[in-house]
Design goal:
The chain is built from seven helices and no strands. It is about 60% helix and about 0% strand. It is globular, with a radius of gyration of 16 Å. By secondary structure, it is mostly helical.
């Protein structure tokens, strides 16, 4: 089994990439920022690894966390209004922007927990193990 994760391996990852593709591309600096440390460069680094077939769990995890941090519901970086304006083909429809943010947040959370949970729990402890030793 390969350590690499492709869109064919994870339908939630494929869906998240599709959602990101609905937004204006990385050349739109009003959305993604400019420079080597911009939000767009953070996304590009992880997306390129995944799309080239070289993405690992850490890349998927980071991408998901970036979506939660920069595009997710209630984030302080890119407003829902800017996301709405940046969505292709919906003409700035507020309901579409709201639905996009909700869907992206939910999908990113699924991926973050899938690929981060072993680190949060610890690789050696079994699911629910802490409850077995609780008083």
């Amino acid at each position: 089994m390969s350590d690499f994760i492709t869109l064919d391996d994870d339908s939630d990852l494929a869906h998240l990439i599709d959602l990101i593709d609905m937004l204006a591309g990385p050349e739109v600096t009003s959305l993604w920022g400019e420079g080597d440390h911009s939000i767009g460069s953070k996304f590009a680094y992880r997306i390129k690894a995944i799309l080239s077939g070289q993405g690992r769990g850490q890349d998927v995890d980071y991408l998901a966390v970036y979506v939660l941090k920069y595009l997710g519901k209630g984030n302080t970086y890119i407003s829902e209004d800017l996301i709405t304006k940046s969505l292709r083909g919906v003409g700035g429809l507020p309901a579409a922007g709201h639905a996009w943010v909700e869907d992206a947040t939910r999908t990113a959370w699924i991926l973050a927990t899938r690929y981060s949970l072993p680190q949060w729990r610890g690789y050696r402890s079994a699911p629910g193990q802490s409850w077995l030793s609780a008083p």
